[in-house]
């Protein structure tokens, strides 16, 4: 392999250092009706929307981080889930105190004097109180204080009976062990939580009705007397609840049966968090009619009413507009089903699409909701930020990303494609990445950069991923596919049935064939691509992925070794019975106690002796999403079956395998594929 191919490969791994996707930050509308913002260089600008006149602003920049006030909000502890923000104290509505934690209890700290007053006195290591509940990385921080500041809402966590999992640091002497609560065995208890309302006056606690082991996701206050939230039960029932803050009584307002919590939660929670103009009730999302639509639920719990059309797959509710509308993001183009547009609706269902350019659009409301910033890009079009009125009228271009460093990359051609799934009917969409210097007279091996999990779209529909996500190439299948193209492979990325964004039927196609349907779809796609492209060698194909991508890469090697001769599986769940079995219950359609064989069949450990492909396993020691135990169990099963394989353990690496761990592990993976698939590179 020529050295310049490796140089290009390494450069692609630093893609997220080459493009600043924060085109516009700290945008606001001033009292005079002017729009102010900061560009990616830090320069502040001011625009008059009425005249279009703009200029640099001398206004003081708003602080980009947390207050420097010594008595202001402080960081309490690191995030409980990788990808989430750290846990911070919460400022009261009147700005005089912050909600904090003392050991395992809640307390108020005066921001002027620093004096601390303990509110609860019943916390313990197994039953701690939490000042700032962050359940999932996709969920925003809920408003903790009631609007009048007299109560705080908290989740009292119960870890009784939950296993503890060791994170080992072998790089120090003696080795250091950090134990984390994690239900690693089928008999382990699942973390439970109960909603409580605590008086800031006297610490009196009002408990909500028990959630019966359902996961509670905090939403928002409804006035000063009630709180909205979402529960998800292990069997996949998602419910909208309104809890009375005075009595703790909970009323179910809407209920859905779902396949994957992470797929449905972002849209549902954004709807719950939005106050609906001109409607006495709440927002909710449901795919009961096929597509994920926005519904309005009456406050009395009557039948939900849809306000988006059947063909629009809702992704996120942005918020209410000044003219009584609701701004949202939705997929509306059946020919380009992963394009995301800014749309508007209202309580009467007056739906309209506000943006037309292909690719992905993100929207942020400004001021009273008269304007929004539309930040958009496509796989080929760099990010740009436009100012628009909430009726859709374009006002001005605020800025565009500097992509000069990206143009220095020697990128090969990319080709979008559509092929049939294994059922011969369903269209699958993806992208092929060709090596620099591609020639149709040569034969090329293939790297299928796979994810296939039920909560994430893999193929690229924006120029670069949002900065809030990991900057590791491991977490971006399209970037990984293009990086491997630099080494002489054909990179492939596509979304099989069972992935989100295309409605209930597409998602549920893999509901009771989890771990199998996606592999069949990827195998069928490779065969279809090779039939139309003689230069694509379907007999020399490898699969690579992280997390669910690691799981599906390994399943490709198990179920289709005639196509996938080698695979690299990183940080995947390979034994569902020993990794939060309740999480997989809705995916498999049964529980572990009821059908342990279904859990074994869907995994890899029980089938290690059947794997004929070449195997590389990668995992970090400090992964708190998927325990290292999963990879060690599969490696042990392979060894006991006499199956040679390569094992890469990364000291200190977390689930996303970033930084120097990223470069080392992906170069190791690339050399593994070069040995086993042997492309004749540039």
TrEMBL record:
Transmembrane segments: none annotated. Residues 483-678 form the Peptidase S9 prolyl oligopeptidase catalytic domain. Residues 45-89 are annotated as: Disordered. Residues 83-383 form the Dipeptidylpeptidase IV N-terminal domain. Gene3D superfamilies: alpha/beta hydrolase, Dipeptidylpeptidase IV, N-terminal domain. Residues 63-80 have a biased composition (Basic and acidic residues). InterPro entries: AB_hydrolase_fold, Peptidase_S9_cat, Peptidase_S9B_N, Serine_Prot_S9B/DPPIV. It holds the Pfam family DPPIV_N. PANTHER family: DIPEPTIDYL PEPTIDASE 9, PROTEASE FAMILY S9B,C DIPEPTIDYL-PEPTIDASE IV-RELATED. This is S9 family peptidase. It comes from Streptomyces oryzae.
């Amino acid at each position: 392999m020529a050295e310049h191919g490796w140089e290009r490969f390494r450069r692609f791994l630093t893609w997220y250092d080459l493009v600043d996707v924060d085109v516009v930050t700290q945008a606001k509308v001033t009292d005079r009706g002017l729009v102010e913002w900061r560009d990616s260089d830090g320069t502040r600008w001011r625009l008059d929307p009425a005249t279009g006149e703009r200029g640099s602003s001398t206004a003081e920049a708003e602080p980009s981080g947390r207050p420097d006030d010594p008595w202001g909000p402080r960081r309490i502890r690191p995030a409980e889930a990788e990808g989430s923000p750290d846990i911070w104290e919460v400022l009261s509505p009147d700005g005089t105190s912050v909600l904090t934690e003392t050991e395992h209890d809640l307390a108020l700290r005066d921001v002027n004097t620093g004096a601390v007053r303990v509110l609860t006195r019943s916390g313990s290591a197994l039953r701690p109180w939490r000042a700032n509940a962050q359940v999932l990385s996709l969920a925003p921080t809920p408003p903790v204080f009631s609007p009048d500041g007299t109560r705080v809402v908290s989740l009292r966590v119960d870890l009784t009976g939950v296993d503890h999992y060791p994170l080992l640091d072998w790089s120090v002497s003696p080795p250091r062990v950090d134990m984390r609560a994690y239900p690693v065995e089928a008999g382990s208890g699942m973390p439970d939580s109960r909603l409580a309302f605590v008086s800031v006056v006297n610490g009196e606690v009002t408990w909500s009705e028990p959630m019966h082991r359902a996961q509670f996701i905090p939403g928002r206050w409804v006035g000063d007397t009630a709180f909205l939230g979402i529960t998800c039960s292990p069997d996949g029932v998602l419910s909208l609840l309104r809890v009375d803050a005075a009595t703790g009584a909970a009323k179910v307002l809407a209920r859905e049966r779902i396949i994957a919590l992470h797929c449905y939660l972002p849209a549902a929670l954004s709807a719950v968090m939005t106050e609906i103009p001109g409607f006495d009730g709440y927002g909710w999302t449901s795919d009961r009619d096929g597509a994920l639509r926005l519904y309005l639920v009456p406050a009395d719990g009557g039948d939900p009413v849809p306000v988006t059309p059947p063909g629009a797959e809702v992704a996120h509710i942005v918020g209410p507009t000044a003219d009584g509308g609701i701004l949202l993001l939705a997929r509306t183009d059946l020919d380009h089903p992963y394009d995301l547009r800014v749309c508007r609706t209202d309580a009467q269902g007056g739906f309209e699409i506000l943006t037309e350019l292909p690719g992905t659009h993100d929207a942020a409301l400004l001021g009273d909701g008269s304007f929004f910033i539309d930040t958009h890009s496509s796989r080929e079009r760099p990010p740009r930020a436009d100012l628009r009125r909430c009726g859709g009228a374009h006002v001005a271009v605020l800025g565009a990303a500097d992509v000069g460093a990206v143009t220095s990359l020697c990128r090969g051609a990319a080709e979008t494609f559509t092929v049939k799934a294994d059922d011969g009917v369903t269209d699958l969409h993806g992208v092929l990445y060709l090596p620099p210097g591609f020639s149709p007279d040569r034969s090329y091996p293939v790297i299928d950069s796979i994810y296939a999990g039920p909560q994430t779209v893999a193929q690229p529909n924006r120029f670069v991923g949002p900065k809030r996500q990991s900057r590791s190439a491991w977490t971006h299948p399209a970037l990984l596919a293009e990086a491997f193209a630099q080494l002489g492979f054909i990179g492939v990325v596509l979304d099989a049935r069972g992935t989100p964004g295309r409605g209930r039927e597409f998602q549920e196609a893999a509901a009771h064939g989890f771990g199998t349907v996606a592999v069949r779809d990827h195998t069928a796609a490779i065969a279809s691509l090779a039939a139309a492209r003689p230069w694509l060698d379907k007999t020399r194909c490898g699969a690579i992925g992280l997390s669910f991508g690691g799981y599906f890469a390994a399943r490709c090697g198990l179920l289709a070794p005639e196509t996938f001769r080698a695979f690299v599986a990183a940080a995947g769940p390979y034994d569902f019975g020993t990794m939060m079995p309740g999480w997989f219950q809705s995916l498999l359609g049964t529980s572990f106690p009821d059908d342990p064989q279904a859990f074994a069949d869907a995994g890899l450990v029980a089938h290690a002796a059947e794997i004929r492909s070449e195997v590389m396993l990668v995992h970090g020691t400090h992964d708190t999403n998927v325990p290292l135990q999963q990879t060690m169990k599969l490696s042990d099963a392979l060894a006991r079956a006499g199956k040679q394989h390569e094992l890469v353990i990364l000291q200190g690496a977390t689930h996303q395998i970033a930084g120097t761990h990223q470069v080392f592990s992906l170069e190791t993976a690339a050399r593994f594929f070069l040995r086993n698939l042997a492309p004749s590179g540039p």
